[in-house]
Every structure is written in C-alpha cells, then in structure tokens.
C-alpha cells in the first residue's frame, strides 16, 4: 500500500473485530478468485446464501477455492431452518463435516423456533463448530420489542454463539431496519446498551446503512450481508477513503 497517507489501523486476519461478512449468491470459481484478487484481505467470512449450496454446480470446487484463500465458509441460516423443520439437523451436521465446513448459522427468521430449543441447538453445535446465531425476523411486519432482542442475543451468546447476527435481510428492509431501509436507531441503542457491539454482526447491505454503523461504532464494526461487488467499497469506507467517512475516528 502506498505510504504517503496515514491510514487508520485495521485489525489483522483472522479478525475478531471489523469483520466483513460477505453474501455469495452463486459466484463462479473464477469470480471467487477475482474477488480474492481485488479484495481478499477485506473478506473475513463468506456465507453461501439461503439454500444455494444444495443447487450450485460448483460447490466442491468453490469451497476449495475459498479454502485456498483462507476464507471460512458458512451455509445460509435458511438451510439450517429447513433442516430443523424437517428434522434433518443430523444430516446437515454430517454434510458440513463432509464438506470441511467449520462454521454454522442458526436462525429463526422464517420458521417459529422455541427459544429454549434454539439455545440448545446453539450449545450442541458450538461443541463442534464456530456458531453464528441470528436474531430478528425476515418479515418486515413482525416487530420484536427491543428488550426481547436483548434477551435473545444475551441468551444465545451464553449458549455458545461466537457472534450474533442482527437480521436485516439481503435487502436491508427488515429486522434492524424499517421497510424503507432506515435504521431503527432506538432498537440499536437498546441492544448496544446491554451488549458489546464487538459480539454482534449488523447486516447492512446498503451503503447508507454501512456508513451509519461506521459513524456510530467506528471503523472496526462487524458488518454482514455485504455483496461481493461492495467489499472494496466498504473497505474504503472503513479506511476513510470516501467522503462519507473521512472524519470517522476509532
């Protein structure tokens, strides 16, 4: 990197803070290599969205490419929800092991999952995997009180989740956002009053949302549902190389 600017420090990989969690909706192996060539240092984990892992024609080769680049992969939480709905969790666990996937996501954004059962699943999986749990609904009309967000996040961290993902959908129009994409600021304030934001990943697919979280929590905030094409853009926002975030400290 050119040395004529004093750029902010970024934590080194593997990072615990400043994570960029990328959504792969069907990249080819060539596109994976292209992403790594352009922005590999900024990618911390990749999620194969929803149930795409079951239908992609290049799964084994793609996983090998990510592994060669040192990027952990997690399957979409929707796939875990379907496995739970159909009582196929053991099969999903066995498949993840067969594929060499060491991260799993546990969510209930679509199905109704009893809190006690969800925590038991998180605890079980945490014995063998790095677990991301997700809190919040994909239904923009299903509003959960802030205190319930706090209770669920705290309980799932206690059960063994490494990070808890705050739901927003790929569109950024549900969960921690209003249907028009506006941040539910009061909700975020309630959550971080009780929970260290370093233990959270905020889904923020839209640039304005990314800017808001960077300004609110600093350059090393964990952000998820980032499109591959937006990884480099987000990194410039983190480093103050765009006008939106030039004045951010920390």
What do these coordinates show?
There is one protein chain. With 250 residues, the chain is an alpha/beta fold. The chain contains 9 helices and 8 strands. The chain has helices at 29-39, 59-68, 77-85, 89-99, 115-126, 146-159, 185-194, 207-217, 231-238; strands at 20-24, 45-48, 73-75, 103-106, 130-135, 163-166, 200-203, 223-226. The protein has an 8-stranded parallel beta sheet with strand order 3-2-1-8-7-6-5-4. The radius of gyration is 17 Å and the shape is globular. The protein starts with 19 loop residues before the first strand and ends in a 12-residue tail after the last helix. The model has no long low-confidence stretch (mean pLDDT 95).
Topology of this structure?
Layout: E1 20-24, H1 29-39, E2 45-48, H2 59-68, E3 73-75, H3 77-85, H4 89-99, E4 103-106, H5 115-126, E5 130-135, H6 146-159, E6 163-166, H7 185-194, E7 200-203, H8 207-217, E8 223-226, H9 231-238
Parallel strand pairs: 1-2, 1-8, 2-3, 4-5, 5-6, 6-7, 7-8
The geometry reads as globular
Average predicted local confidence, pLDDT: 95
Strand order, sheet with most strands: 3-2-1-8-7-6-5-4
Give the biggest beta sheet: 8 strands, parallel
Characterize the quaternary organization of these chains. Answer: single chain
How many β-strand stretches? 8
Query: How many individual helices?
Result: 9
Order of helices and strands: EHEHEHHEHEHEHEHEH
Distance between the termini: 20 Å
- Estimate what percentage of residues fall within beta strands: 5-15%
Helix content: 25-40%
Low-confidence segments, given as residue ranges, are: none
The computed structural class is: alpha/beta
What Rg is obtained from the alpha carbons, in whole angstroms? 17 Å
């Amino acid at each position: 990197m050119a040395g004529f600017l004093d750029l902010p420090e970024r934590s080194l990989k593997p990072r615990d803070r400043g994570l960029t969690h990328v959504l792969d909706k069907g990249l080819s192996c060539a596109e994976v290599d292209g992403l790594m060539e352009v922005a590999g240092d900024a990618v911390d984990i990749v999620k194969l969205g929803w149930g795409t892992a079951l239908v992609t024609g290049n799964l084994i080769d793609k996983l090998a490419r990510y592994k060669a680049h040192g990027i952990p992969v997690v399957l979409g939480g929707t796939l875990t929800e379907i496995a739970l709905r159909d009582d196929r969790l053991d099969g999903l666990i066995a498949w993840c092991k067969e594929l060499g996937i060491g991260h799993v996501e546990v969510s209930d954004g679509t199905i109704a999952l009893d809190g006690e059962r969800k925590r038991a699943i998180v605890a079980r999986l945490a014995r063998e995997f790095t677990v991301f749990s997700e809190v919040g609904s994909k239904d923009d009309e299903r509003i959960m009180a802030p205190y319930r967000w706090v209770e669920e996040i705290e309980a799932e961290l206690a059960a063994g989740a490494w990070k808890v993902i705050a739901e927003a959908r790929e569109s950024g129009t549900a969960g921690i956002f209003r249907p028009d994409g506006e941040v539910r600021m009061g909700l975020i304030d309630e959550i971080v009053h009780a929970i260290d934001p370093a233990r959270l990943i905020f889904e923020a697919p839209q640039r304005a949302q990314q800017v808001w979280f960077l300004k609110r929590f600093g350059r090393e905030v964990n952000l998820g549902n980032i499109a591959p094409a937006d990884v480099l853009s987000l990194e410039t926002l983190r480093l103050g190389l765009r006008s939106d975030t030039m004045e951010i400290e920390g």
